[in-house]
Write the structure tokens for this entry.
Amino acid sequence: MTGEVMIFLVLATIAIFGALVMLNASKVIHMLLALVLTFLSIAGLYVMLSAEFVAVVQVLIYSGAISIMMIFGIMLTKHHHDAKERTYRSSQRGWLVGVAMVLFFGIMYVLIEGVNFGATAPDLHVENTKQIGLSLYSHYVIPFELVSIVLLVAFIGAILLAKREEDTE
Amino acid sequence: MGWLTLLVFSPIVGIVLLLLVPSTQAKLQKRIAVICSILPLIMSIIVYQQFHSGADLSIRVPWISFGQYPFSFFVEYELGVSGFSLVLLLLTAVLMIVSMVTATMQIKKGWKQYALLTLLLEIGILGVFASQNLILFFIFFELTLVPMFLLIGKWGGMEKERAAYSYLLYNGIGSAILLIVIIVLFANVGSTNYEAIANASLSTELSMGLLISLLIAFGVKLPIVPLHTWMVRVHVQAPPALVMIHAGVLLKIGAYGLMQFGIGFFPASFQDIAPVVAILGLVNLLYGACIAFVQKELRSLFAYSSISHMGIVLLGIAAMNEAGLQGAMFQTISHGLIAALVFFLIGVVKEKTETTYITRLGGLSRTMPLTAGVLLAVGLASLGLPGMSGFVSEFMTFLGIFESMPVIAAIGTIGIILTAAYILRAVMDITFGKEVLAQQGIADLQGKEWIPVSIMLGLILLIGVFPTSLTHSIQTSVEAIVLRIGG
Amino acid sequence: MTVHAFLLLAAALFALGLFGALTKRNTVIVLICIELMLNAVNLNLVAFSKFGVNPAITGQIFSLFSITVAAAEAAVGLAILIALYRNKATVQVEDMNEMKG
Amino acid sequence: MTQIAWIIPFFPLMTFLLCFIFQKREWHHLCSRVGIMTTGLALIGSITVLIGQMIFGNSEAVISWLSIGDTVFSIGYIVNPLNALMLVIVSLVSFLVHIYSKGYMAGEERLGTFYAYLGFFTFAMLALVLSPNLLQLYMFWELVGLGSFLLIGFYFHKAEARAAAKKAFLMTRVGDVGLLIGMILVFWQVGSLEFSAIFQAVSGGDMDSGMVTLVALLIFIGAVGKSGQFPLHSWLPDAMEGPTPVSALIHAATMVAAGVYLVATLFPLFEASDTAMLVVAITGAFTAIFAACIAIVQTDIKRVLAYSTVSQLGYMMLALGSAGYVAGVFHLTTHAFFKALLFLAAGSVIHAAHTQLIGEMGGLWKRMKGTGWLFLIGTLAIAGMPLFSGFFSKEEVLLAVWKEEHYVLFTLGLITAFLTAFYMFRLFFLVFMSKKIIPYKRRKKIFESPRVMILPMVVLALLAVGAGYIHTGWFGPFLGEWLASGNEYITLHPHEGAGWLMAVTTLLTFLGIWMAYLMYQKEKLDRNYLSEAFPGVYEAVLNGFFVDVLYQRTVVFATKCLGIVGTWVERYVIQGILHFIEDITILVTKLASKLQNGQVQTYGAMVGVGLVVLLLIGLMQGRFF
């Protein structure tokens, strides 16, 4: 067992553990913190996959921005039902979805087993950020700009939506 | 563009003119509607003249094409007439005038919309009979559906919505099946021209399946017995002026379709299921008559009577010989006139006495002797008295069916007696029955009301006394079909 | 290390996220679960950029876009949540059934 | 001269049209005049045709009426001895009835309608008689039925009249359907409906014997319906609800004789089948005695005459069924005259006495001598008194039966002759002679009928006496020879006067008259003896052996039941199925709308599960697209 595999196993275990904790925690804030754990371990996996820049972005956006935003969201709303929050709804739906998801994973497992691309990119980690930057500003400049517009629109929309009703008048 | 196009779209003149008149001027509107409904009649008389002088009336204009070689499809705008559809066109034009005149007297509110929708309906009906292309036929067929739905739903009786919806539902299913048939034919033949389809060779199984689908599609319209409940409801709920068109022409689309498409496209398969059709006809005939016998309400009685009479049409079609087919066509026209007149009278009676229950109408011949007299006359026509149109068709139909299926024919003759029984029961109880109708000062037939009566009664007598006046038109259609059957 | 391990991990995270999104009653958690699913997908993208048929930087760039859109989504989702909460004073998914037929 | 035949029916049709248009009260005096005039013209035309036929022989002309493919159905006219004779009978009786009605119906507020109907009936009857083919015959056969229907129901405010009219129409229609089927079968066998073509086919053996029998029997059903033969006879007595002149014209002389006429016209067809002939004979004989029995106990003057008509028509059928073509036609002729006379006389009595019940009459002889004498002549004629017309024709009928060696039927015929004499004289004695004194007040009001009513009766009385001499053993069988001369298919049986038969019938007649005299005039025999001894039988006979009740309980009931069952099927089976479909649709939509619970997560779950299922299927199939 190489070190690489060991690191992978550790990170994967943390990620899944975080996800499971998120699903089973009783307090919303705990859930969120568990998820941050998952996000961080995924960032670690990105590093393993020679994607240092993405890993940094992952830490910044997910572990940082989105998590903070969620915390704000949680704090701005009341969560009386926190104590009563059941992980699995008593209805059949929980079981149904659970079984479906297990099956889904099984199917994916079977399918992934059959995948073999063979090729490996050798030099992604060499000047990773530079490569991304070059591509973004040359090849993908239009999508990049479009995404920026999407972001702008989304944030303006979010502000508008979150504004109090009386403010609009 | 040809006379036929002008004929089919001639009601548009009325529609446009009516739209130009403000809705406050009711009198002017009525005048315009009546006058404009004469236009199709003039057109159809011209077409009649042209047809009998041997002119070629058919039109064929490229219309829609799609797909790429070798799977290209063409739909053409094709109009044309056969002898049978010609008389149906005439019948439509005549009944439309009569119905419009009736409507001016009996439709009180929303007159303008009523007239507009009726004229639209007329385009649909005329188009159905004049088209020579299945796609075109279907478009016109659907065009009859919507105005009719609105007309029933807005101007009907107590349960008008229910009636309108059951009309739409049944006929919608019917046209859906029809559409499937048309598409299958289109895909298999590559054209929807009547002749092209008739000449195409389809496998036996396919044509049998298509034929049965057609039987259901037009069986809804005709209607064939288990599919008839909508029609009774419409007869009872729709305004009598509308039922005149409905019973007079719309139901005939079923008969026309069965003859034009059923036998016309699949003669061999039709031969195979002719006994089934005959039995269906028998059931229609007897079942309708039996139920009509115990009805207490005039409109439902004559609705079942229509079912019974359509049984005769089915028998005639099932006979698959000259006499039977000619009888079926004759019956189609004859019943169109008779039913229209009956419902006109019912409209008059309902208008003036505000009831249509037989028990409440006793002694009509005292209060409204002329109405009662005409009702008796049309009742007699309906039960097939010689000298009236009903007899000729019954005679020919039974002549035909006795040749091909004597046993069914023999059972069918019971229908003649039953028809007499229920018609007499109804007519006698109404016109001559115990005098329940005590109201005084009920006006009898008068003035404008004589127009519909005299036109229709005159035509019933005309084709009853001189049947050749009608048969010399439908003869060509009969011959064409018989040639197809190969008999 | 093969691509399989990453793909399996991503699949597992995706399944867990989907499960949460479909069963959790708290809207915030549902949103969080959706983020988890997006992460799983991103993991796939990045994995393919290393082990794909045509391994290239494109996968990473795409995952960047995806993260951006996810951020926008989270922002809008939370805004909607706040607006809803203001109107209905609840964040329970069951209570948001305006589309009930 | 015979070429004008086609025009004859149109004269009465003119009456119909004119009287129908001008039926207002102020035109009434014109209506009767128009009616009398046009039937007079028809009578002149008919006599011309008759003479023309005698001089020039038969003639025929047809025009095409309807064509189906290559087959042409024609209408037109044919003149042969039989229908020339019928033409004269019909137009004569109709003419006389038109005159008579002027008096009888005076003051009727719907006189115009009455004459219109009479004209219509006469038109249809004349056209029926002129028919050269079965189709035309059938058409006018139906139309005379309509005329009869309208006239029976003339007093439509009376429920009985309505019911009677309806019954008459429906019962004859049952027969008509038989005729229709027979006609259609003939058509498919022969390929034409012309009488001549049918006879050729029959004599040429183109139709197999079974088919001939079937067709003949079916056509006979039509005749049974029209001529009031058992079992379709019961409409005829009820039809007496119509005005009396109508009964005289339609239900005595002309329309009811149409059935006999039909059998006579198609005689070659019937003759070709022994079975058919036997059925005709048996039906006739049975009807004759059956109706005579009922006639004995009837209390309504017109019903007695009606049953008597049924009985006499049975006689004619018996004659025809026994190959007595001439006898049948002969009796038809004489019967037309004396029965019309009897009805008109009865009408005169009713007109004066304002009642139809025999029990309320009696001793009218003194007040109405003229009517009394005329009625007596008619009675003598029908009873078969020697030297009166009925004697000759009845004897001819019985002779024909004897020669066919139908001894049972012959006996029945003899008994009927006796019964006829008995019930007719019962009627005569009770109405005119009985000593019972009508209350003075009512008696004072009874006057002899006006001359316009007496005159037609006198004409008929003369014929009732004299018509018998056209075919006798003494002066030669003129009628028979003439009838046979115009019809190649009729073989004339040589007339052999059987002296013993004459003696027997005369004896029976006198016996009948004597018994009636004893019972009802001298009252030496207790008239109620039998009815008291067998009350059940009496009840049965009085009600016409409950035939009507039987029909009411079976046919009418069955039809009603069918209708009700049909409605039930309609309401519960068909509507039930529809409701079932409707319910299923609603159930499904309800279930589906339950899925649409607004919970986005549920939708998502469904999508997810669906995806998994699809993936599973894909996995099992080994392909995903």
